[in-house]
Amino acid sequence: MNFISNIWNQPKTSATGLLIAIVTIAGALSQQGVTLGTAGTGTVITLVSAIATALLGLLARDPDGAGSTVPVSSRGVTAKLGAWALIALLLQLPFVSGCSGTTVAQDIVNWTPTLQSAVTTVDSTAALLAPADAPIFAAATVGFDAASNLLVGQAKAYLANPSASILAQLQSQVVAFQQQVNAALLQAGKISNPASQNHALAAIQAVSTIVSAMLSLVQQVSSKGAVVRMAADSTVKTAEVRQFLDEKRAARIVAEHYEEPVELARMQVEQAEQNATQAGF
After folding, report:
1. Staple 251 to which of 112, 163, 264, 265, CB 3.0 to 4.6 Å?
2. Alpha-carbon distance 102 to 93, whole Å?
3. What's the CA gap between 168 and 164, in Å, rounded?
């Protein structure tokens, strides 16, 4: 009877708990390859998880600030529900949760317009720098166009023919591009002119954010042995360039791409960075 009365007296808490359970179970089933059939362009599991996640978001959006009609005694409960809802949302991170190789390849392809735009910005940034700094920046970023085209081309090839050999090429290229970007960040960090350095780092970071997202995606479909090999090829580590990165800017780029709240994107970026560091990148 206490169980029934608790549900009746605390409907919001009970609903949140149920939705968190649904999201958690759906995430576990999805990572094990259980789909329960298709729904549109996705699966029944992802559809159920998405609906539960959306409902969690609605439960966490009750007003509790100035002018709120929510009693003070209830605001702590609302805040806790919001926190739990956010934890459940984190289980659905677009580029740091388990997914299939084809999904990863499609997501990388989906990043293409943003990546190409970022690389175009890099190409035009040299004109904004002081004359003495422009050659340093140009030399550091000279391979970005070729690297981005190759990476996107391999993702499209894997999408058309998901094979171990093409995945291996994708793994190698995403690490190679990441290393180019990290090395470029280190070079840009040596620019002494503050205005030039700000322009250079901002342009490179846009590319860095996207490549880091792609690396995180590829990690999700790579074996432990493959990740070890990838990390071994990563000589300029994430920790070495962290000081040159603006986390807020990275979060805005991710939030815009996935059409999600910036705060959630910030947590995704932090989690992806943590995963990369732990893996040895």
Report:
1. 265
2. 17
3. 6
